[in-house]
């Protein structure tokens, strides 16, 4: 089954809004195996991957965390920062060494409140990413836990 690529900042935001956000970014790096955040933790920042791969995972009672999606170049890591109560819904781990741009969530939310058009485009971008992640999570969990031959996703 074909899954469209996740909306990146490059495709999801007009150049002017991308440039405004990038002025607030700081460069960070994570070694392989580093946890960026844990499910249930405070969502106070987000990242856009420059190089490397980040695995999104979700806790499954009685089992190891299930990897839901692999994120790479130009992809958004974290959407929970935009929506109250600003708590991570998944976990994230650097699958390889990662270089990323890090954004302070409170600053970006403030910029979005002050500029309605920026806020609209950021919300649309993050909403598109969220819809993509939900589809990936559903598909992955069915792959892992649905009985074999239980039927198609459609």
UniProtKB/TrEMBL annotation:
<dbReference type="Pfam" id="PF00027">
    <property type="entry name" value="cNMP_binding"/>
</dbReference>
<dbReference type="InterPro" id="IPR014710">
    <property type="entry name" value="RmlC-like_jellyroll"/>
</dbReference>
<protein>
    <recommendedName>
        <fullName>Cyclic nucleotide-binding domain-containing protein</fullName>
    </recommendedName>
</protein>
<feature type="domain" description="Cyclic nucleotide-binding">
    <location>
        <begin position="9"/>
        <end position="111"/>
    </location>
</feature>
<dbReference type="InterPro" id="IPR018490">
    <property type="entry name" value="cNMP-bd_dom_sf"/>
</dbReference>
<dbReference type="InterPro" id="IPR000595">
    <property type="entry name" value="cNMP-bd_dom"/>
</dbReference>
